[in-house]
Amino acid sequence: MADAIKPREATEVREAVEAAIAEGKTLEVVGQGSKRAIGRAAQWDLTLDLSGLSGVTLYEPEELVLSARAGTPLAEIEALMAEHRQQLAFEPIDYGPIFGAAAGRGTLGGVLAANLSGPRRLVAGAARDHFLGFSAVSGRGERFKAGGRVVKNVTGYDLAKLAAGSWGTLAVLTDVTVKVLPRPETEESLLLFGLDDRAAIAALSRAMGSTGEVSGAAHLPAAAAAKTVVASLAGGRAVTALRLEGVPPSILHRRNVLQSLLKPCGELAVLPEEASRTLWRSIRDVTPFAAAVTGLERPLWRISTAPVQGPEIAARIAAGTDVSILYDWAGGLLWALLPPSDDAGAGLVRAAVAACGGHATLIRAPASARATVSVFEPPDPVAAMLTKRIKQNFDPQGVLNPGRMYAGV
Amino acid sequence: MSRLRMPEADRTVLERREAIVAALRAIVPGEGVIAGEREMRPYESDGLTAYRQLPMVVVLPDTTEQVSRVLRYCHENRIRVVPRGAGTSLSGGALPLADGVLLGMGKFNRIREIDLANRVVVAEPGVTNLAITRAVEDAGFYYAPDPSSQIACTIGGNVAENSGGVHCLKYGLTTNNVLGCELVLMTGEVVRLGGKHLDSGGYDLLGVVTGSEGLLGVVTEVTVRILRKPETARAVLVGFPSSEDAGACVARIIGAGIIPAGMEMMDRPAIQAAEDFVHAGYPLDVEALLIVELDGPRAEVDHLIERVSEIARACGATTLKASTSEEERLLFWAGRKAAFPAVGRISPDYYCMDGTIPRARLPQVLARMREMQQTYGLRVANVFHAGDGNLHPLILYDANNPGELERAEAFGAEILKLCVEVGGVLTGEHGVGVEKRDLMPAMFDEADLAHQQRLKCAFDAEGLLNPGKVFPTLHRCAELGRMHVRGGRIAFPDIPRF
Fold it and tell me: What CA–CA distance (Å, rounded) separates A11 from A14?
């Protein structure tokens, strides 16, 4: 592993980037390194470790806003928000289980740079939708800020959107501000059993179009369902799950709405609060495909598509190989577990996505595969040109995480 | 008219006007090119009517192919282009340039697809915001962002401005509700960003195009998500003896974990004007009025209305009325929604500001505004999206009195600087445009603005698309591209060297 620089102040981040520019070196930008195995397999000269930039700098629960230094552990932020019955509504995935690492790691800066989200993405947005503002050091060695600390702001370009999901390739975040929201008072889930993929997604679509206000809509085919808290309820069948969150009288009412709507779809059960939380944590973190269950060698793809196209993409991949799927976002998010192969199944997955629309990211694969296939969705030629120019304008010498997303970016 | 420095007209372009008009007619036939002074008059300003400028020529394309060819032609011939939707911008985002082509998108007015299974609508950019809801409401759906101008403003303009509305605390701004677009770059190249799926597989280009005020590209198709219409909605009308009490009540409601669908505040002059105009039943003996709306299942709304009412009483509310019918709820809103025209009745002119502040600073900001009223000798009525801290002070003036417009503008600028000073921003939903362009340095330093412009340079390196908007100075991209390396300086002497 490369030597590490561990700045304690934003000015030291700038000095590190300036030095890298002056000496023609590249930097790997990391927080706690919890997502280090994601991205193209590339080599960097030095590690810029941001875990020393830590601490919540502003938290005003009644203003729904929290600012922290980028390297602040997510766990610390979640504990603080919990004291005020608040949360990050976008429900960021914890990648620990997928990579066979400890759970509960990661920094707020990392959550934003990777634009993480979870089951509630469907109704509450992703990290991008809650990222209000930041200070950063660009690959030019200049400190700059964007956005603000208020939830409604259209002053200047929305550079927080650009930073979200740029995986540290444009700028090193040093301070970030996010919107926080109240935690729902309680939750429960409604389960349907034994549906095939298409019937399940059709049921989820009906539920999403109802007044049931569903905040999580997933389908676990039998193999995935068997590895969750609902395994014994499922008894070898697939499980289709709908989450209801809010105040108790509201949940009771919406349960009735959904039960009468979905009765024709098959047997229904109600999963109470605690088991519901456990189930949705499994779905968020994709634990049925955790390294401890499947091993690290089997490639895992994350595919975002139009919800009704989910089963079609799955069928196309299944026509070419032995694939296991877990559906979230009412069918719009597929986690696809493939058998090991030289290209990690990229040919099949990319062809299916090209035919049905959406984008796919190879989240877990051996470094050899990540060195040869495109990990992120290859952009079309015009988007690729814009991507390269943005990188060139923010990081002309390619100092920050070069090659992590795309060759030459 | 007040003074505003716009990019100097390019004489060599103006000299070629006849040839340019002919070339554009070859691309967009028939009535799609307007070159007569009288016919161009409706395009000389947008919702910010203090500024007017006739464009060199107006072009109204109706296919992506035409947009692409017009832009490619203008790019090759170094002609500036100003895109325009319905022209409802309150910040001058569509103000024409004397040497520029005004690209009107009004003919793109079809809804292309309603996809209820995926809960999306694909629309051309000239479709109005409200028309999207109208197209899906029979099926029980709606499009959530609801700017006050929704009957007229277009979805393409909403994308350009990242428009909000009274319900965005709970449902988000345009950026949170747009899934995809087709975009034509200044070079004429066409790119699709996003689609019916969520998030981007690479850089979030859709995210930066949204709210870019027509400086990055021209949107020719938009895909938005639609939501199931809530089962019911109720509003509660609460009067307070001071705006401090009202502000505290807003904080307590949110602190209690309740995110209302809408939460609006009005001060005494705004209440008075609105009540005189629409007779909504507003109390006239209060300093501040809150409208809190809850939506969702009936059981939830009834439950939360009770909790909001308890909190309001504990905060010293002197009047409290919860709507018991849809008619009553709409009546509560009628006053608020008519606040601008109501103010228009009591003053010959008014100037609408749009800063956002951290809500806790409201009493301080209101107190300072009262002082400023003395200084400038002008009155202010305040309406306020209280939930998200977005202030709309309406400065009352009379343009017929020499110097009053300039005083109103100076007053407005001072209010916006105050918003920034207390931790807020220059604009919450109206955009920077030309109106707040020269105030940008109050919020952003040189490096901040340079990085924003570096994004611009990636999309439009020659700066031909909507110049004179957003940025006080548009630097040349080559100049922004230069690196200033502090050569040989050793950082981190105590860490392992490279």
Answer: 5
